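Backbone shapes recur. Consider a single case.
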Amino acid sequence: MRKYKFLRSRHKIEIDITWQCNLKCFDCNRCCGTSPTGERMSVDQIERFIAESNLNSYKWKIIRLVGGEPTLHPDFPTIVRLLLTYRDSFYEKDKPKIIVCTNGYSNKTKKILSELPCEIIIDNSNKSSENVAHIGHFNMAPIDIRDTSKDDFTLACTNTTYCGMGLTPNGYYHCPVAGSIDRIFGKNLGYKKLPEQVDEMDNLKQEFCKLCGFYDMDDTKVVPSIDNIKLLDSQPTISSSWKQALRDIKIQGRHKLTRY
């Protein structure tokens, strides 16, 4: 049982600008392999994020552009320019790092990365196949594998504090992976505006952490390191709740979540 609470970050955010990907990796924490989709954020949504950040006095230290594979977004260069303009216009000092998280897989992606402004940090995992080592089984819901009746899921895990918030086409979440859980389970809980600074988003933690394999993966105050990336699977590892949710999507179609 956790003895401490991981607080929602007010300084870091991961923006899922697209869930389209050129790989279908096992245990992808955006479900790009188990439930691929081309859904993406619009330029207007990015502009809204910038406006809300200023209005609510958020001072970001790290803004990550993720996916899917972010370079597949047709407006990727425009989104990068918008964020650079935001950084240079509204921060006199302590400007946020803008990081593009990419798999570096295709020649098209490599070309786009080579053309990025030098101010952009590239976090390239350099994947060469879909069978990649990882740190835990994202699709293993705690409620499926043990008694969670005494768990306080609002305590969350390291992702909430150290990785930051998440923003997807469907809104804001307390952590980067909660939005992908929402699109599979259809709870439609993404915040449609940037939460106030005092809001811990505990209602989202209560709903999504019980479905997230990362919740049981770490019970420390330390970010999982590269030394922990040891799991290598030949097929996805999925618990019963996830299997049912994915089966429902195949039969009934995708959940129609409200867009941000």
In short: The beta strands are 12-16, 62-66, 97-102, 121-124, 165-168, 171-173. The CA atoms of residues 173 and 179 lie 6 Å apart. Residues 76-90 form the longest helix (15 residues).
